[in-house]
Amino acid sequence: MLNSLSGRFLILTAVFVMLAEVLIFVPSIARFREEFLLTRLERAQIASLVLLADEEVNPDLQEELLRNAGVFNVVMRRNEARQLVLSSPVPRPISETYDLRNAPAFTLIRDAMTRLTTPEDQVIRVIGQPVRMGGLLIEVTLETDDLRAAMIDYGLRILWLSLVISVFTAVLLFWAVQYFLVRPIRRVVGNMQAYAEAPEDAHRVIAPSSGIRELREAEETLQTLQTQLTSALKQKEHLAQLGGAVAKVSHDLRNILTSAQLFTDRIEMSEDPSVKRMAPKLVNSLTRAIHLCEATLAYGKAEEPGPTLAQVRFADIVADVIDSERLSAGKSDISFAEDVPADMVLRADAEQLYRVIANLVRNARQAIVNTGNPGEISVMADEDERAWIIRVADTGPGLPAKALEHLFKPFQGGATKGGTGLGLTIAQDLVRGHGGSLSLEHSDETGTSFCITLPKGNLTDVS
């Protein structure tokens, strides 16, 4: 109970209410003391009127008047004359004198606290202003026992009243906190616990319903996080299933391609000039396909293998990619251009770099073919002291909004209808493996341009 939010709130409420009551009690008890003494002055003034009406007052009547007034003597000052009106023996010397005329609040509070903390009975002199213009001054002496007892009684009544108010207020606030704060928090916690049991179940995502603005914002934030996590888990499961399927297909496809490679060895023996010219390209394509299948099988076990760096003539890779894409383009009105220095040599993995360029050029070709309009695809390369810079640009329609929003995300950033977005994801991963970067320079109705940067100094030199 005490460790709960509502329990601590209940205790704090009671403490704060009592503190407020104490702050109210201090000036109240000072006011009570002042009223008590003013009442004694008024009663003493009334008793003195008997003597003023009849100067021959016997001692018994005088004693009774003083006893009823609760004082030992009464002194009145009329005009400039000070006159002892009523008097009786004072049991002990006067300890203190208090002047209630225009007494400041701080003085009244200090005197009241002093009286409460002084248990012994004392005789005090009290000076005040007579009521109803009865003179200039009235002065009485009295014992403090009755005053202190009355103050204690008043304080106890204030204390009990404060306790009742504190308990009543705390109970109301406890109920309000339970209803408006604790219950919604428990509902959110319950949802989080239920969601944690099966985060892939979209039905367990919280539905914001709180009427309190702060709690509703928390629920909406939690809903966003849960939705994103559920989507990520489903995507991960989908990728795992797809990876298993791809690994199986790659295994069988590798065997088929290996058999096809054996046949191409015989094709190379043909005397037909066209066959002799095309056979090496066919062999290279089959070799790349086999390596890709092997890499896919390796990826199913761990990660994409790192690049095997070697000195690579980039112009040869670009030429192979463009020759392959020209065949794929068929009768489409697409032109290919390359601006690559013939002597440019890169430190890279030839197979992986071929896949990067092939993915970018293939995406560009498919985008232009889908428009039915002519277009151009260009591959350009340059270098400086720190890096090799490669650009693949086209004059296609530009990437769609969804592809731009989910660029480089598998199954979300497809640039063409039915596309998976894997080409860009694979290209980016391979470039990162070389320590470089792949970025989109621009994409609009005039075309699209990607830039590849491969650093010269971040990788170990190879011979």
UniProtKB/TrEMBL annotation:
Record EC number: 2.7.13.3
Catalytic activity, reaction form: ATP + protein L-histidine = ADP + protein N-phospho-L-histidine
Pfam families in alphabetical order: HATPase_c (PF02518), HisKA (PF00512)
Bilayer-spanning residue ranges: 6-30, 158-181
Main location, first listed in the record: membrane
Cellular location(s): Membrane
InterPro entries: HATPase_C_sf (IPR036890), HATPase_dom (IPR003594), His_kinase_dom (IPR005467), HisK_dim/P_dom (IPR003661), HisK_dim/P_sf (IPR036097), Sig_transdc_His_kin-like_C (IPR004358), TCS_sensor_his_kinase (IPR050428)
This protein's UniProt keywords: Coiled coil, Kinase, Membrane, Phosphoprotein, Transferase, Transmembrane, Transmembrane helix
This protein's record includes keyword NADP: no
Source species, domain of life: Bacteria
PROSITE patterns for this protein: HIS_KIN (PS50109)
UniProt name for this protein: histidine kinase
Domain Histidine kinase: 248-458
GO MF annotation list: phosphorelay sensor kinase activity
Gene coding for it: tcrY
Residues in coiled coil: 215-242
Cellular-component GO terms for this entry: membrane
